[in-house]
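Batch job 17 of 40 flagged for manual review because the log was empty.
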Amino acid sequence: MPFWPSPISTRDVAGSGVRPAWPTAQDGRVWWTEDRPGEGGRTTIMCRAADGTCRELLPAPWNARTRVHEYGGRPYAVTPGGEVVFANLKDQRLYLLGADREPRPLTPEGCRYADLLIHDGQVWCVRERHAEEGKVTRAIVSIPLEGGEGREWATGCDFYASPAISPDGRHLAYVCWNHPRMPWDGTELRVTPLAGGGGSWTVRGGPAESVLAPSWRDDSRLYLISDRSGWWNLYEVGLRGDGLRELHPAEEEFALPPWQLGGRPYAVLGDGRLAVLHGRGDLRLGVLDAASGTLTDLDVPYSGWDGALTADGASVTGIGYAAAVPRSVVSVDTTAGGTADAEAGTAAGGTADAEAGTAAGGTADAGAGTAAGGTADGAVVAARVLRKDRDRLPDPAYLPVPQPMRVGGEVHAFLYPPYGPASEGRLPPYVIFVHGGPTAHANTALDLEKAFLTSRGIGVLDVNYGGSTGYGRAYRERLKGQWGLVDVADVVAAAEGLAAGGLADPARIAVRGGSAGGWTVMAACCRSDVFAGGVSYYGVSALAPLVAHTHDFESRYVEWLVGPEDPQVYAAREPLALVDGVSCPMLLLQGLDDPVVPPEQSAAFADALSERGVSCTYLAFDGESHGFRRTETRAAALAAELAFYQQIFA
C-alpha cells in the first residue's frame, strides 16, 4: 500500500530529543541530566539558576553515566555549596565538578558508584566492585569530598539501594536484597547505626514484600513504600519497625519499578507534606498530608511523571509528560494558585490510563481521576517548564491521541489510531508495540516513533502485557514462571482483538519490541501465525547463554521468569529452539557493545531463520549498547523498520 506522506522524518525522531532526567532542586536552583544524541549519546549535567539562567556544566568529552547494575541511574549529586559530584562513563570514577568546571577525581579506578547522597562532607553511595574472576560485590560506602578510599557501612547482601541518613546523623537507612530476587519481588529496609557500635536491623520487608525508597520523617520515624497490600503504597514506620501506618490506602501504585538506582517517587516538602506520584499505569502528581491521609492531585497538564521527584521548600520538581506535550523538567509551586506555564501546553492528547475514566476506546474502571494532569478536585497550582525534551513539535494533527483499552478481557493497552482515511477501502495496518523489562510498562508520553508510523497510516497498539508494572503485584506476577507464554498470549490476543473489532487489516499486523520485548516478538512469531512480520531490537532468543553471560543484576531473573535451569523447559520456551514455527519475515537490530543481551542472541536467531529460508534482515551497529543512543544509529534503525513495514504491508 502507498503510505501517507508525513512531515515527520527519521532525523526528527532520532536527533532532536535531549531526554531530560534526574532533577535536583536546592536553594532556588535546579540541576538535571540530558543527552546529546549528536555527540554520540553523551550525557551532560545542566543547571538553572534562581534568575532563570540555564547553563551546561559538563563539557565534552565528559559523560555523566553510571554502569551500576548496567542500567545505571542517577549519576550525580549536589553538595550544599552547589558543587556537583558525578560518575564518569569512561572510567566509572567519581569526580567533583567545582566552580572552575574542571572535574577532579575522588575515587580510584576499578569500581562503579550510584545512588549518590552528599552528607557531612562525604559522598554516600552504592559501590559496585567487579573482581577479575567475575565476582561482583556491592556495599554502601562513604567517600570524603577530598577523595580517597570509601568506608564501608553496609556489606554482605548482593544488592543495595536508597541510602538515607537521619537528620541527627546517627542512623543510615537503606534497601537491600539478595539473589535470586529482583527489587520488585522481595527487599528489606534496614537501619545501621553510624555511632556507638551495634549491628544493623531489619525494619520492614522480606522475600514476599517489596520495600522501596526510605526517607526520614524525623530522627525516629521513616517513610517508605511497600507492596504488602498488593500495591506499592506509602507508609510510616518507627526506627525499630514499630507503629507501621499506611498513609493513604489505595489500589494504586505510588512508585515505579527500580530498574535504575536513584529514583525518588515522593519528596518531603518544606511544611512536612509529601509530594507523591500515584495511579495505575501512568502516575499523577499530588500532595499528601501524612497526618490526615488526605491526597490532593495537582491540576497540571501532564498525564504522567517519571519516578524522580525533588522538593525545595513548597516547590516540587519532576519530569512530566503527556501525549502531545514533550517530556519536560517542570517545577510546581504547591501553594501558589494559578495556571500552568504557557510553554507546557494544554492537556490535549494526554489521557489517563484505563482506570482514569471513560476515555475513548477503552473500558472505565473506578479509582483514578480524570484526564491528563489531575482529578476533578485537583488543586490549581503554578507550574513552570524549565526544560523540554524538544523545542519543536510536528503539527498536532500528526500526533496520535492514546485511547486506553482492554484486550483479552484483562490486558491493558493504549490504542494509537493511524492518521488519515483507509486506503482503497482497506482497513489500516497496525504494529503491536511490546515494551522491554519485562517488568516495565507502556505509558502515554509523547513518542515520535509512534507518530512516525501513525502519520503514515500505520496504527499502533502499545500493550501492557501480564508482568507489566503499574497495576499491582498480582498483575506483575501473572508472568511468574510464564515468560514466553503469558506475554505471547497477550500480544497475540491484542492482534486478534484489533482484527475482530474491525480496527486493523488482519493480514497486515506486525509486532515489534526491544530487549525482553524482543524475546516476546520472536516467541510470538514462533508460536503464532497472526503476524505479517516481527521487529526485534536487541532481543533474547536463548535462555542458557543469557543465564551464563548476562550481567549480575539479572543473572538469576530467568529463575523467576521461567524456572530453574532445565534444558527441556528452556527448549520448550525459547525462540531459538522454536524457530521452525516462524513463517513471517523478521528484522533484527542489535548493538555490538551490548552488556545486557549479547549480540550472539540476535545473530543466532538470524542465522537459524536464514538456514530455514525465512526472510530475515540482521543489522548490527558498532559502538551501540543496550538501547541506541546515537542520532545516526537511531535514524538508520527507524529507516530500516519503515522499509520493512512498506514491504510486508504492501
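Reviewer: the log was empty due to a logging misconfiguration, but the result itself is present. The chain has a mean pLDDT of 91. Unflagging and moving on to job 18.
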